[in-house]
Fold this protein.
Amino acid sequence: ADGIYQDVERSLGNLRRRQIDLYQLHGVNDDDQLEEVLAPGGAVEGLRRAREEGKIAHIGITGHRRETLVRAVQTCDDFATVQVPFNLVEDEILETLVPLCADRDVGIIAMKPCGGGNFTNAPLAVKWCIAQPIAVAIPGMANPQEVEENVAAAQDLELTAEERMAIDRMKSELDQRTCRRCRYCEPCPQGVQISSLLHGRSIVRRMGAARWKEWGARDIIASADLCIECNECVTKCPYDLPIRQMI
């Protein structure tokens, strides 16, 4: 509680603000972590104090496991928002978290609406996402053109027949063996460049082999030989991916 309260005050100074609109507990990815932040003297207690003093307006929570976030909303009335992965493939929250949050007036912030950069038509993926019963989507944008494309996608949320067909094609691009680039698996104690390895094919497909070579593909690929199959990366992955086999 004391630590996060001090973090709030530090952020207020850095941002030069009297109040932070939304302060989120980030990366609460399992029930043990949830229990820790909710316990007496835990992070939520510190944020309640900051909210009572007007230093923050709302408390939110983020995570990658919907079961933990469902439990968070069910057991704690302090959360105004939930930030969770949500896209046209990872849409399971439509049957679980979405109706629960709607019933309790909790906003849903959709992270990774473009599947961690794996969808070929990012603006269409964003359009599909924000057309769902959520509060907001937060796609990553690397340049002004991507900003303009995403803003344009939000102007008309009705999906055409052609767009629905394109969405069906994109769904086949992201399966249960696709890394979402959250990088919780890193750093590898042996020096395996896990995220870079798992995204090599995507980089080559989208940017060409020459670009990946510029980014050190030879060393990245060589690092795979350092894997001793300790399984540490697998235990850290919020998507339960078979990382060793994928490498």
